[in-house]
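[retry 2/3] Mutator family transposase: previous attempt timed out, resubmitting with same input.
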Amino acid sequence: MGFLRLDYLGYEKHSPEGNNSGNSRNGKYPKKIQTHYGESVIDVPRDRQGEFEPTVVPKHQSRGLSIEKLVISLYAKGMSVSDIEEEMKEIYGITLSTSAISIITNKVTQAAIEWQNRPLENQYLIVWMDGIVFKVRDQGKVVNKTVYLCVGLNKEGIKEVLGMWVGKNESASYWTGVLTDLKARGVNDILITVTDNLNGFTDSIKAVFPDATTQICVVHQIRNSCRYVVWKEKKEFSSDLKNIYNAPTKESAALELDAFEQKWGGKYPYAIRSWRRNWDELTAFFDFPVEIRKIIYTTNLIENLNGKIRKYTKNKLSFPNDDALKKAVYLAVSEIEKKWTQPIWNWGLIFNQFITIFENRIQV
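[retry 2/3] Mutator family transposase: success.
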């Protein structure tokens, strides 16, 4: 907390600016504080006149609630327990043992479990699904593990992360378990799902929510289509693909696909086959007004969430176990969701469109 005293006095230690200022540094004194998770000792800076008021733990108080929040905040940014101990001591002048820090951060595990098992709403208008890969130590080896994430749009137009599930390589069979968990927690109906084109994903969704409209991310499809196109032709190839998904109707999109096949089918038949095979799921968004199309034709919304989670966990090259990974992702999601307090853009119009299209399913 020395920097707080510096800010209060207005001059550096030994600086001539402090001469005849009427106040000066006067060392530190130890103070025991009580947190929800045990007793700790901190070194509190003091001034000659006794006027300095520390903001972390105010005078005549022994409760360190702000310290707990600080520890959790540092942990959420990806710092290890030992890093937090060093940060607290060097920056804040707080002596907090690694065991005390671990006790505080371990409480996050229980909070994450309660969050993961909370009851959900019975219906979501849209659910975006995607996975994000992290390196985790498992049985002595560092392996890739996928955090499965679902973001739901409720009838108030608010986005919420419905849960996170940790598994190995992303697979349709694991997603079946995720969707089954959503149902067990109270979700009876999903109007539209938005996913990547993982093989078997649509079948997994239909097995649990048979009435859901399934939309495959068009952006993922374009990336996959361009994967084997020679570099000098990618720009033209991608431009021609845009004519398909920018078409005004599904019928005109089909005509654009025919034209695309005539031009590129001989050289890149794989790309054409993939569009033909997934056509119904790739073009489901054409059945909706433009305002809804914009939010369901791609998984950009959940990919943006993944990017923000990456920022919170960037200090972690790998996690020691699944529990540490879950804590970090839970804390990141908690911070991100603090900004998800308002309905999505143009919600009034969009919700009325949903009511019109799904009048027999939406209960207002």
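[retry 2/3] Mutator family transposase: The chain has two domains: 2-114, 121-357.
[retry 2/3] clearing retry counter.
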